[in-house]
C-alpha cells in the first residue's frame, strides 16, 4: 500500500468509500457479512482511511462502518464523515429542516444535534476527518449563515478534540471553492473533489485542483472511476488502453491518472466486491506515475472519443459585453457536462440559477460570438441548451 500525508497523518492513498457497499434483498440494506469481509480485507492490506457520510445507504453506512472497525484499535484507522448541510435549510420556525434527499428526518434545532447523532452512530468519541458535505453554489449560504454558525461550531469541536481535521467535499465550481477557502483561510486542510480524467475538462477539475493547492490544502478524490464508468469505457477505448498496457486493467488507468498528482492524498473508491478491492490493491501497490504519452492518451484520445465538447477555454472575453450579464463560460461548462450525460449535479446547479441567468435569457445579439477567440457560436450553443432544458422539463 502506498501512503501519503494528509494534515500530518499517514494515510493510505487508497481510501475505502462506504457509499456503494454490497446490499442484500432489494438493495435497500447493507449486506453486513459481505461488507464486513471487504472492510477486513482492506484493513489487512493497509487501508486506513474510511469515508462515510450522514446520508450514505439511507443513514446505514455510518452505523455499519463504526461497528465494522470497532474490533480494531481505534488509533489504527482514520474515520471521515460529513455534515449534510447541502440538504438542510433554516425554516421560518428557526429550526433546521432537511430537504427531499433526506426526507423523513425530523427538523433539528442546531447542527450540534446532527453531529452528536453521527458520533453516536459511528460509536466513536471523535472523527479523524470531518467534512462539510458538498459546499457549492446552492449550499454556500447555509454554510456561511452566521446564525446557524456551522464553521464556528465545528472549530469548537475541533478544540475539544472531537474533530481532528476539517475539510469539505464539493461539486461546486473552482470560484466557489476559492471563495470558501478564502473566507476560512487556514481552517480546511483538505477538499474532496470529483476528479478523474473525464472531468478534468468536463467539470473543470483542473481548475478546482489548482484552487485547492493555492490555499495549501490537499485533495481527497471522489469518483476516480466516475461511478465505474471508466472501468469499462467502450470497445475502441478499451482496446487503445489494453494495447498501451496489456497487463493493466481499464480501471487502473483512471486510478493512475489521479495517483500521478502530488496534490492528491487519498483516492476514495466505493468498492462493492472483493474483486474490485483486489484489483485496486494491486493498483495501489505501485506509485509509478503515468508517462506524458500515457497522460495524452487518456486526455486526448480517450476523452476525445467519449465527448464532443464546446471548446470554451473560460477566458471570459465575452462576458463583459453581454447585455444580459450572462456567465457565458459557466453556462457552456454546464452544457458540456450535460451533453455527455444527463448529469444530476449540473441540473442541481442550474436549478439554483435565476431565470435571467439561465441559457434561455440570451437574446441572440451575437456580441459574444464576435469577440470569442475560439470562434464559438455562443448564441447557437445557448439556444440549443435552452431548448434541451425546455424539452427535459416537458419530459
Ligand atoms: S448572444 Fe446572448 S450570450 Fe451572447 S452577448 Fe448576446 S445575450 Fe449575451
Ligand atoms: S470568449 Fe469564447 S472561449 Fe472565452 S469564455 Fe467566452 S465563449 Fe469561452
From TrEMBL:
Pfam families: Aldo_ket_red, Fer4_9
All residue ranges annotated as the 4Fe-4S ferredoxin-type domain in the record: 303-331, 353-381
Gene Ontology MF annotations: iron-sulfur cluster binding; metal ion binding
Domain of life: Bacteria
Entry keyword set: Iron, Iron-sulfur, Metal-binding
Gene3D superfamilies listed in its UniProt record: 3.30.70.20, NADP-dependent oxidoreductase domain
Protein name in UniProt: Aldo/keto reductase
Organism: Luoshenia tenuis
